[in-house]
Automatic annotation (TrEMBL):
Superkingdom field: Eukaryota
Species annotation: Scytalopus superciliaris
GO terms under cellular component: plasma membrane
Protein name from the UniProt record: QNR71 protein
GO MF terms, alphabetically ordered: integrin binding
BP terms from Gene Ontology: cell adhesion
Pfam families in the cross-refs: PKAT_KLD
Stretches assigned to the PKAT KLD domain: 71-121
Amino acid sequence: TTGAPSNSDSSAIVESMEDNPDGGCHIYRNGYYGSGISVVEGILEVNIIQMTSIQMTESQAENSLVDFVVTCQGSLPTDVCTVVSDPTCQVSKSVVCDPIAISDECLLTIRRSFEEPGTYCINITLGDDTSQALASALISVNGGEFT
């Protein structure tokens, strides 16, 4: 406490400095601080409302194409990501992300390719700068058709 001012408030500061194991200094500031908060609505909900198998020509028959019609509520998304996983939704097989431009109503069609027949878990995520929302579906693709 050598060299410390003799008023009662400084003794607490000196004790804090001596208790600091790093030997550094503490800076105490008093006053009022302000901050601005912006509340944004965000993307509130995503729904897969339709799944349609796309008929292919014989030369394209090795892949099955499915169109997913998706709606959302809240703010309009700027990107969409589709994760195709195993039926338990645990092991990811592919991830595709694309920017999208929606100007009025949140209604979009997402086309995805499936290389082989099987059952898949589909996660579709719509996002913008401040939020994300997810919809999932289980789909069984069987040679160009699905259930």
